[in-house]
Every structure is written in structure tokens, then in C-alpha cells.
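Sequence in, structure out.
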Amino acid sequence: MRTVSGSVAPIAAILLALVLAGCTSSTSLITNRTQGYEISESAMQQIRVGQSQELVKLVLGSPQSTNTFGDQSAYYYVETKVRQTAFGVTMIQSRTVLAIYFDKNKKVVDKAVYSLKDGKTVTIENRRTPSFGADRSFIDSILSSF
């Protein structure tokens, strides 16, 4: 006589294998996403020389960063495309900066698109300037007063 549990075990094993195979697909381990402003070609074409800052804000939204130097100012919109693994490791795929430059009358004079290849590496200085008393501990301060 044949038992029912003997025929169910192979089917359950096959179903379990299929479920586990679906969980380990490579597409579920890596996600691609955009951080910041998504720069579209149509939005860039709408910005022309002579337009006001208000119109630029209406078309592109509020800038992520601004700069004012003398009579000129600029709006910066940054788009960063990243690839993130399921383990939390984030890798930058590309970074694009849309810069809109304005004159003293707050009218567009130029626009530019910059990418990672246009950037420059800046080394951060690790040295510290020593200051009097900063390196002394509380005990050292008490002992030096005697």
C-alpha cells in the first residue's frame, strides 16, 4: 500500500526550491535609483537666456543649492544615479549638475551641465592646529595647579 506522505515530499521539495530560486534572483539584490533632482531634457529646453528666476523656479522647482558672487548668482540642480545592493552598499553610477546663471537683474545669462569628469578631486587636510589647554586632561589641569 502506498502512503500519501511519500508522494507529497518530492512536490514540496520542488516548490521550496522554486520559491528559494525566486528569492535569490540577481535583480532583487541590486536596485538602481536617482537621488536629488531628475534632470529631464524637456525641462532644460524650457530654460532660455533672459528668463526670470521666478520662471526658472516654476519650471524646475526650488534649487538644491544657490550661489551668489558679486552681481551674479546661480541655481544648482544635482542628479545622482546610484546602484544599491541589498546589503546597503551604495555605488555612484553618475552625477550630473545643472547650473543656471543669473545676472544682477535676476535674469538667466547662461546654463551649463557638468558631470563627474568635470569635477576636481579635493584632498582634505587632516592636520589640526594645536591650541593651549586643548590636549590636557582634567587630572593634568588639577595637578598643574599645585
